[in-house]
Design goal:
This protein is mostly helical. The chain has one domain. The chain is built from eight helices and no strands.
Amino acid sequence: MNQIILIIVLILKLSVVFAQIDYKKCDIEKVKIVNANLDSLTFQMIEDFLGTFDKSCISNIEYSQWSNEMLYRLFDNEPDLVFKVIEHGQIDNYQILLDEIENPIHDIDFQKIYDRISEIKTKSDFKERVLNSLESASNKEGKRIMR
């Protein structure tokens, strides 16, 4: 009986590991969902949104601008949930997200977002990379972030 339970648990664990979510890249609908639910976002909404970022989106101006704005709004409104998605979701486009952070399209209060992210308790080294990207973006605009 114990062996059967162990086998079932292993199968379930392996199915999660091998399950690859194929996100639709540059999906403006996911941006709309995040925008419409900023006060009641879920793990799945954020994961679906973050999964849409791709280098190919640069040619989609509407998506590029709006998704960049929403990414910053997520870090401002729900930084804890964003990092939970990064830690436990199936996101694999980290460098693209960092590039987005380093190149904001709108005016951003870098210090406010930096402070919010700094307070988050996370096991992810992605937090430091996000903070570095924020500093880089701020420096490009001639602003200084106080640590």
